[in-house]
Amino acid sequence: MKKLLFSAAMLLAGLSANAQLDPGSVAPNFTVSAYQPWLAAAGTTNNGSYTLYDYLDQGYTVFLDVSATWCGPCWNYHLSGALEDVYASHGPAGAQGVSANTTDDVMVIWIEGDGSTADATMLDGAGSIGNWIEPATGNQIQFPMANPASAAANQINNDYNINYFPTIYRICPNRIIEEVGQLGATALYGTVGACPPPASAPADVAALSYTGAAVHCEGSYTPSIDIQNNGTSALTSATVTVTQGGTTVSTGTYSGNLATYGVANVVCSPIANFTGGALVVTVTTAGDASAANNNANVTVGTAASAVSQYVTVNITTDYYASETSWAIKNGAGATVAQGGGNWQDLGGTQAGQTVQAPVLVTLNPSECYTFEIYDAYGDGICCAYGDGAFSLVDANGTTFASGGEFASVDTRAFKTGALGMDELATIAMNVYPNPASSEVNVSFEATNNDYAVALMDLQGRVISAKNMSNLNGTQVVSFSTENVAKGSYIVTITVDGLTTTKNVVIK
Fold it and tell me: For 403-413, what is each residue's pLDDT tens digit?
């Protein structure tokens, strides 16, 4: 999906810096009114008002488009007619603009999401980029388009973590949400099949999503899972079983009064001396009507090992640098180091990426930590938007964690070693020119010792290296970049087991 830069209008609206709602989240309820005069009395609730849960409770899958009247990509998607076609072919039977041959399983709701312009009459072309409710003469949009007041629009933005326009969500009858993006009509309707059938049996419990930690350092590990009541009667009890390799390693129980489509989290018994691996989580209840939704599979990653407590964080973003941030958290979940989120975007047509200069983090020896790199848009640092990457390097020059493309968050666990404080010392070095075009020069002061100088990519792969013996005094080492791809690289100098690094951009 194409990324969109934040606009001043969105920032003024007070939008959250968080990503969109994660897949598997429960969609908050809302009620909006249709702006179109011809739908003023056509709502299924009260004189043109539309309540999300009313449609979900009737078994409809709802496509929600949150856009802004000033947003060019929003307008282009609106003109594509994808939502109109889905609504006409699959919308509620008997609704205005819906075919008599409808499959009767979809609802479409469009919302003007920019609270700073929401109170103005913008949908009919007054100051906007087009007439949204009648984009072509005689083509009146028949699904409801809402123009909420500022407070209501901002509430929806906050509830749905709207961070860019347009945002198109698919909301299943069980309230579970997933962002589907700017798909064509056929592809949009194709996602409806991923929704579970509406609740029809008295007892039906589902394993909704695994909520335990994705990585684990050492010692005891506690699995947890969100369960959902897909039955028509209240769920009063359920049993959770966690197996590894066919052996039960943890259990949990739910008791209470969970209404239809209600969600509860079950924390299971700890697994002693857990070393990671694949887990199967199964939830059951008395008289369970369907076993197909009872299981969740997860693979918990194990910790890498850093030789030293001194860790260097290297980040290369894609073109949309402002979306990327990172954090290191200790075993208690407290953030001990963080960065990113405020770099300047380069724009999707420019060459090269934004590079964060290496950040040296001093951590406690022999302690477990979690590194998280986060993309606010939800597509990682990847692909058509300039390949990005990250790496964690210890003071011995060893890259112990690295990666690039990921869904929204990439998480790694690692355990630090304990080396002497003299490792914090660095070699005085200079890398020039930076950015470089034809060659990279590395100058440093040598002190009667053996030195290794290398040019590496952010995954720690050596592009070129030179090993030199018995050096003394000022040294200059040059690397030709004639056959090196444009991008971000690391220059390292190693002597007596101590490595000093600097970033360089090759253009």
Answer: 877 777 888 98
